[in-house]
Design a protein that fits this description.
The chain is mainly alpha-helical. It contains two helices and no strands. It has one domain (3-57).
Amino acid sequence: MGLGDKIKDAAEKAIGDAKEAFGKLTNNSKLEAEGKIEQGTADVKLAGEHVKDAVDEK
């Protein structure tokens, strides 16, 4: 996994976290849901990249 991919996925997760928090703060359920989805997407991408790393190490 490239460092650029890790940074990109971590940034996507952070943006999702911020959206969720702002949605909660402003009582905007749509924005909160978007943030949760973005976090989930980033988590899946990171997990896939970790699997690739594990396979490459063997």
